[in-house]
Design a protein that fits this description.
The complex is a heterodimer. By secondary structure, chain A is mainly beta. Chain A contains no helices and 11 strands. Helix content of chain A is about 0%, strand content about 55%. In chain A, strands 2, 4, 5, 9, 10 and 11 form a 6-stranded mixed sheet that branches. Chain A has a 5-stranded antiparallel sheet with strand order 1-3-8-7-6, with no helix packed on it. Chain A is globular, with a radius of gyration of 14 Å. Classes of the chains: A mainly beta, B mainly beta.
């Protein structure tokens, strides 16, 4: 079974400050990991993904995430927050079933990023 | 290139009434997903289609929910009869997935916000 835990339903930062959104996963097989962003009344948009290549993944809008197998983590960071970064962020994991069948995506509960001027 | 199109964007119905949601995926995408997103939660997979075939439908409440994907393109999700607990955002996503089905990103539509009164 696979699962995703996002620590903190809300994260509040000042504009220009470091953004850190936490994600821990549980998977019995090597995972594929994703971060998505959702703006109000919109669908989810991919920020970045980890597919077993480089452990440090760079995405759009200056975001990056590091896969740490020993910590089962895939935290999202951005050096300097912008007001436009205020949104809901979702971590997701996809792993293959043990029978080698489907890849089923599982999403975390989301973290709301609040950016203060 | 047009994104994933969903309609309607908003729907308000009384309980016990039927409702249907429509999704047009990105052209050429062979895999289509329906998700339900409750307030303050991440998306939960209802059903996934590979071309015309429905797979991974274990989370679809089959007593009241049905889905179809005619000709492997557009898809319709239906609820009959609707219950108060069905109020949520219903998201459609599509992707182009072949052998390695774990690493492909999904493209999401804006969703249909359903309110059952």
């Amino acid at each position: 079974a696979q699962s995703v835990t996002q620590l903190g339903s809300h994260v509040s930062v000042s504009e220009g400050a470091l953004v850190l959104l936490r994600c821990n996963y549980s998977s019995s097989v090597p995972p594929y990991l994703f971060w998505y962003v959702q703006y109000p009344n919109q669908g989810l948009q991919l920020l970045l993904k980890y597919t077993s290549a480089a452990t440090l993944v760079k995405g759009i809008n200056g975001f990056e995430a590091e896969f740490k197998k020993s910590e089962t983590s895939f935290h999202l960071t951005k050096p300097s927050a912008h007001m436009s970064d205020a949104a809901e962020y979702f971590c997701a994991v996809r792993t293959q079933t043990l029978s080698g069948g489907s890849y089923i995506p599982t999403f975390g509960r989301g973290t709301s990023l609040i950016v203060h001027p | 290139e047009a994104g994933v199109v969903q309609s309607p964007r908003y729907k308000i119905i009384e309980k016990k009434q039927p409702v249907a949601f429509w999704c047009n995926p990105i052209s050429g995408h062979n895999t289509l997903y329906w998700y339900r997103q409750n307030l303050g939660q991440g998306p939960e997979l209802l059903i996934r289609y590979e071309n015309e075939e429905a797979v991974d439908d274990s989370q679809l409440p089959k007593d009241r929910f049905s889905a179809e994907r005619l000709k492997g393109v557009d898809s319709t999700l239906k609820i009959q009869p609707a219950e108060l607990g069905d109020s949520a955002v219903y998201l459609c996503a599509s992707s182009l997935e072949t052998r390695d089905r774990g690493s492909y990103e999904q493209y999401f539509g804006p969703g249909t916000r359903l309110t059952v009164t």
